[in-house]
Specification:
heterodimer, A: two-stranded antiparallel sheet, two-stranded antiparallel sheet, 1 helix, 4 strands, B: alpha/beta
C-alpha cells in the first residue's frame, strides 16, 4: 500500500509564452502538471516565436531521420 | 517484357523503385493482360520480401487502393527477414482510407526496426489494430509515423514500441478522436495535443498505460494539450504525475 497525494503541483506559462523542458512543451499560456520526479527548475519559459522556431528545427530533423 | 519479368525488375530494384516504379510496373503488367492487379501486387510483394529488407518509400505518393493494401499485407507478414525498415512506406498515399479496419485486421510491425513516416500525410482514416511493440530503433523508430494524417479519426487498438520514441508520431492529426493504448507507454515524446477531440476513454488509456517511474528519479512528460487536459479531473491527472510523468 502507498499513500497517494493527489494535490497536483503545476506551473503556468505567462500569456504568449510556452514552458519547455527541452523535450515537451506546454500550450501557449498553458499549464504543466509536474510528475513526482520533476522540478520547476527543469522547465523554462520561452516566447511563442522561439517555440515555432524549435518546431521547425525539429521538423527538419525528423524529416532527415526518415531517410535513414 | 511480360508481367513476371516486369515485376522481377521492380522487385530487384525495390530500394530505388518507390511509388512511381510500383505504379508503372502495375500499369504495364495490367496493360499486357498478364494478370489482374491482385495477382500482380501479390507477386510484387512476395518478391519484394524475398529480395530486400528495405521497404523505405516503396509506395510513397502512390495511388494504391484499400484492396491493394490488403493484398500487400497478406503477403508481407509471412516473411521473417530481420532488420526490416518500413520508413515512409505508404507516405502521402492518396487513396488509402479504412483498409485493415472492417475485418479487424492487424497492422503487425513485428521485426521492423523503423516505421517512421509510415503513413505520413496519407489519406488513412481508420485502423483497427496497430502493433509496434517490437519496433526497436530508439531514436526515430516511430518518428512521424502518422504525422499530418489530417483525416485519421480512429485507431481502435494501439500497441506502442517499447523502445522507440514517439517523436511527432501523431503531430497534426487534428481529427483523431479515438485511440486506445493497449500496452505500456515507456518512451518519451508522446504528443497528442493536436488531437483536441480525443474522447475520455482514449485519454484514460494513455494515463493507465504510462509506465511507473515513481522512485526512479526519471522525469518523463506526455503532452495532451490544454483542451484534453481540461477533460480530466485532478485525480485523473494524478494517475500520471504519481507515476513520474509530467503532463503538458
Amino acid at each position: 500500500m502507498k499513500i497517494i497525494d493527489i494535490n497536483l503541483k503545476g506551473i503556468e506559462a505567462d500569456e504568449g509564452k510556452v514552458l519547455t523542458n527541452g523535450k515537451a512543451f506546454s500550450s501557449v499560456g498553458g499549464k504543466i502538471y509536474l510528475g513526482i520526479n520533476d522540478k520547476v527548475e527543469n522547465w523554462e519559459e520561452i516566447t511563442e516565436e522561439r517555440y515555432q522556431e524549435i518546431l521547425k528545427e525539429q521538423e527538419a530533423l525528423n524529416e532527415n531521420s526518415t531517410n535513414t | 517484357m511480360n508481367i513476371a519479368d516486369k515485376l522481377t525488375t521492380v522487385a530487384e530494384n525495390v530500394p530505388l523503385v518507390y511509388g512511381a516504379g510500383y505504379n508503372k510496373g502495375l500499369a504495364d503488367g495490367q496493360a499486357q493482360g498478364g494478370g489482374n492487379s491482385d495477382e500482380a501486387i501479390a507477386t510484387l510483394t512476395k518478391r519484394m520480401c524475398e529480395n530486400t529488407s528495405d521497404y523505405r518509400n516503396l509506395f510513397l505518393n502512390s495511388t494504391i487502393s484499400n484492396d491493394e493494401f490488403k493484398v500487400i499485407f497478406k503477403n508481407w507478414t509471412k516473411n521473417n527477414l530481420p532488420e526490416k525498415n518500413a520508413g515512409s512506406m505508404f507516405r502521402e498515399t492518396k487513396n488509402l482510407t479504412d483498409a485493415l479496419y472492417d475485418n479487424s485486421d492487424k497492422l503487425d510491425f513485428s521485426g521492423f526496426v523503423s516505421i517512421n513516416s509510415f503513413f505520413q500525410s496519407s489519406s488513412v482514416t481508420k485502423l483497427h489494430t496497430v502493433d509496434a511493440r517490437t519496433t526497436i530503433r530508439g531514436w526515430n523508430g516511430m518518428t512521424n509515423a502518422f504525422y499530418g494524417c489530417g483525416q485519421l479519426e480512429r485507431i481502435e487498438h494501439f500497441y506502442p514500441s517499447t523502445t522507440a520514441h514517439f517523436s511527432a508520431a501523431f503531430a497534426e492529426c487534428y481529427n483523431l478522436s479515438h485511440i486506445i493504448f493497449e500496452s505500456e507507454i515507456s518512451t518519451d515524446y508522446l504528443n497528442l495535443s493536436y488531437s483536441e477531440s480525443l474522447d475520455k476513454k482514449s485519454l484514460m488509456s494513455v494515463l493507465y498505460q504510462l509506465k511507473d517511474y515513481a522512485g526512479t528519479g526519471t522525469t518523463m512528460a506526455v503532452s495532451l494539450g490544454s483542451t484534453n487536459l481540461a477533460k480530466l479531473t485532478d485525480a485523473e491527472k494524478a494517475i500520471a504525475t504519481q507515476k513520474g510523468w509530467s503532463l503538458t
